Amino acid sequence: MRGDDQQSGHLFSYLSPEQRVPADHPLRAIRLMTEEALRQLSPQFEAIYAKTGRRSVPPEQLLRALLLQALYTVRSERLLVEQLEYNLLFRWFVGLAMDDAVWTPTTFTKNRDRLLAGDIARQFFDAVLKQARARRVLSDEHFTVDGTLLEAWAGQKSFTRRDGTSPGPSDDDPGNPTVNFHGERRSNTTHQSTTDPDSRLAKKGPGREAKLAYVGAVLMENRHGLVVDACVVTASGTAERDAATALLHALPGRRVTVGGDKAYDTRAWVETTRALGHTPHVAQAPRSAIDERTTRPPGYAVSQRIRKRIEEVFGWMKTIGGLRKLRHRGTARVEWQFLFVAAAYNLVRLRTLDKVAA
């Protein structure tokens, strides 16, 4: 018998969002780990919010929503709020009931400075890493370091001379004027972006297009490919190596191996790494700074094979996590976003590891 296609609204619903989400949905495991991390951050939330006044949107809900933005590649906070209006899965994860009102997109803007001042992204990242350490899935002896360019939220037209003598835009289109900078020698010493002054003109290699960008660096442990530290620095010719050196200072005092590509095979960086008590397992350049004393042991070949997995981290953060093109300006805000997406990557990896172990 054919069913009736008449559509009528129901006054009451007897199913909650919790009942709608399948028991084996991947977000369930991620939500449990997220809740544990947010419980550890509760004292920090108390410190950065006033004791009196009108109640704000709970910071836990804002962070869960931003986590969904990274996990589901939602390209803007406005679209994220739109999803929260009708997506039952999103409402369940964030902690909104069926009848709860959704906040406006500007709520993220108003609370971002407060969360930034409280260094919440770093503390959330550390709380997730603490759970990984409790599961005994982190290596404390073998690591890999690498950096990548993060394209800034600024166009080439904003890259003008610092002294203000750059040729002005034409008036052919006031909304998107033509700027002719062909034939003009432009460099970071003489020019600066008016949109994002912290960004710098940089390119990944010879023959590649130069873009306004930052450098994001990641320190990965080699056992399961989890991110153990990350940072963002101003782009320059030595930014990747400088950021890597800063990340190495956070490693344990005992001797560990540090893998890397040929960009790290410089005498200065190798000597600095050894001075910190670590063994540089970097790929050899034509005039290498490491010799057979480093490359002869079998562990060197293992580090060279595993170090390539760090590209999976960058690939996920850019294609899924939304870092192919940055959404914020300024080093502090970009690093906040970079750390938060790195924490999201670790949550996905931990869920996979838990599933394999089960």
Measured between the Cα atoms of the first and last residue, the distance is: 44 Å
Largest sheet: 6 strands, mixed
Shape: globular
The radius of gyration computed from the alpha-carbon positions, rounded to a whole number of angstroms, is 24 Å
Number of strands: 8
Beta-strand residue percentage: 5-15%
Q: What class would the helix/strand composition place it in? A: alpha/beta
Low-confidence stretches: none
Q: Helical element count? A: 14
Order of helix and strand elements from N to C terminus = HHHHHHHHEEEEEEHEHEHHHH
Mean pLDDT: 89
Proportion of residues in helical segments: 40-55%
Description:
- With 358 residues, the protein is of the alpha/beta class.
- It is built from 14 helices and eight strands.
- The longest helix has 27 residues, at 331-357.
- It starts with 16 loop residues before the first helix and ends with a helix.
Keywords:
single chain; 358 residues; alpha/beta; six-stranded mixed sheet; 8 strands; globular
Quick overview of this protein structure:
With about 350 residues, the protein is of the alpha/beta class.
Topology readout:
Blueprint: H1 17-20, H2 26-40, H3 42-48, H4 59-71, H5 77-86, H6 88-94, H7 106-117, H8 120-134, E1 142-151, E2 159-161, E3 191-193, E4 200-202, E5 211-221, E6 227-234, H9 239-248, E7 257-260, H10 267-275, E8 279-282, H11 292-295, H12 298-306, H13 310-319, H14 331-357
Helix pairs in contact: 2-8, 2-14, 8-14
